Amino acid sequence: MTTPPRSDRRGSRNRPGSRGAAPGAGGPVGGAALWARAPGPAPGQLLGLTVVATTGAWLGLYRGGIAWESALQFNVHPLCMVIGLVFLQGDALLVYRVFRNEAKRTTKVLHGLLHVFAFIIALVGLVAVFDYHRKNGYADLYSLHSWCGILVFVLYFVQWLVGFSFFLFPGASFSLRSRYRPQHIFFGATIFLLSLGTALLGLKEALLFKLGTKYSTFEPEGVLANVLGLLLASFGVAVLYILTRGDWKRPPQAEEQALSMDFKTLTEGDSPSSQ
Length: 275
Hints:
Layout: H1 6-12, H2 28-37, H3 42-62, H4 76-98, H5 104-136, H6 144-168, H7 174-211, H8 220-244, H9 254-268
Helix pairs in contact: 3-4, 3-8, 4-5, 4-7, 4-8, 5-6, 6-7, 7-8
Pfam family, one: Cytochrom_B561
Membrane topology: Multi-pass membrane protein
Domain Cytochrome b561: 43-244
């Protein structure tokens, strides 16, 4: 039996799947296998669906349901805002965790589309509340909830436009994307937290307007709405926890590592052979 050259014996220890290779090491194949075994963030998504279902139950049991051409038009607002700026926005943030082994372009397009759907649904919710106020002669934009809501909506729209310009528009350079990515992640998480806070303010405002002093007597509607508030907060914590978990982050693919190496070579003068 022919003994392999020394260089081949050395290389075999670093090849994926070899006996001497470290777990998860050895390039994208070993890394993908390790990531495939990592637990997914499905509980966070189930919690988000529970938030939407509880919101529908609250509006159906104690607020008469939803309708556009009636006094129930106002109820379109909280339902759309929870679906759009809480559930779908949270799901959009988790796309890179749920589909962390898929092609990056596919994941990126899904991330952008979820944000588009969230924006459209939230816009319907805004139109519903302004139209309801106009029909009934109510004042607009006087409460802290309404100020925060407009701020969140504008920031969300700006964040989507800037993100589209940098990450989906073909004219953006790799260096610009790399420099902006940390800011994009930070402002995305910040807007999500502001959305949750605004939803909690609106929930409390709706309870005080209807229940008044009866809120302190543990009315069934108040108890259910309090549970909804806790679910909203829990969903926010779950999303942020999943986003910050290192073992649930999307692993770099081979083509992305090649692009990073080329960018480093161009900007720092390093050669791939020196790494």
